[in-house]
Design brief:
This is Transposase. There is one protein chain. The chain has one helix and no strands. It is mostly helical. The protein has a domain of 35 residues. The longest helix has 41 residues. It starts with 15 loop residues before the first helix and ends with a helix.
Length: 57
Amino acid sequence: MKKTQIEMTETTDFSPQALKKLKREPALAKEEIDYLKKLVELDNQKRQQKKEKSSQS
């Protein structure tokens, strides 16, 4: 099996706006992860309530 090498062009944008964006991206990713975790938690609660409701009937 041959290994193919993928060339990626390296972008070197050191403008203040680009650096600010790079600093902001991890914070935005963390917020998105927290949001998704909260959605999963709420979904699990909803499923648990549904399960309890069907057990009582």
